[in-house]
């Protein structure tokens, strides 16, 4: 029998997911939990689960920390995050922490079941065309609670891109950054474009807002 666990604090969403997942196949048992602590207790008492679907914004725990705990304690169990926070850095961090999939809550029931099927088949599911950031960062969807001191690589930045972004935060122009890093101005522009893509933004101003929101730590980039 297929065993699934839904960890979601909003009752309406949780109940909807449970009903929907009952359609995955005929012989399926879907458990649910409203908080992380009770989910851990259920994992210990009910034995092996074939898949856990985790909300990223649970009360009482940072969603990323919760995912990290699950991957460490139950390394053989696939975990798919189901979240409304589907910006590019969030998805990148989730996948870097070892999730088997990221499923946006904006998905239809059919799309969600298809994504779950991919994960159950042993594949990694990452949505296509994700991370369409609001054109104005101040109008963007509120972010889930991030821990302090997020490292640049956790949001998909290379070491050089992190250096370029750190200097952008200091207010340096592309020409100044090129001189500081002993690069051509053209190379810096390429790195800036890559930084924008990683953060899901379109301008320097949006990038600086994203740095503040995600709490990116540049302490070790130089």
Overview of the structural elements:
- The chain has two domains: 2-120, Response regulator (Rossmann fold), CATH 3.40.50.2300; 148-214, Winged helix-like DNA-binding domain superfamily/Winged helix DNA-binding domain (Arc Repressor Mutant, subunit A).
- It has a five-stranded parallel β-sheet with strand order 2-1-3-4-5, with helices on both faces.
- 45% of the residues lie in helices and 11% in strands.
- The N and C termini lie far apart (52 Å).
- Helix 6 crosses helix 8 (185-199) and helix 7 packs across helix 8.
- The protein is elongated and about 65 Å long.
- Helix 1 links the parallel strand 1 and strand 2.
- The chain has 222 residues and is an alpha/beta fold.
- It contains nine helices and five strands.
The total domain count is 2
The name of the CATH topology of the largest domain is Rossmann fold
The counted number of beta strands is 5
Name the CATH class of the largest domain.
Alpha Beta
What average pLDDT do the residues reach?
Answer: 87
Supply the helix-strand structural class. alpha/beta
**Helix and strand sequence:** EHEHEHEHEHHHHH
- How many helical elements? 9
Tell me what portion of residues adopts beta-strand conformation. 5-15%
Uncertain parts: 130-143
Global outline: elongated
In whole angstroms, how far apart are the ends? 52 Å
Compute the gyration radius: what is it? 19 Å
What would CATH call the architecture of the largest domain?
Answer: 3-Layer(aba) Sandwich
Task: Assign the CATH superfamily of the largest domain.
Answer: Response regulator
Q: Helical percent range?
A: 40-55%
- Strand order within the widest beta sheet: 2-1-3-4-5
Major β-sheet profile? 5 strands, parallel
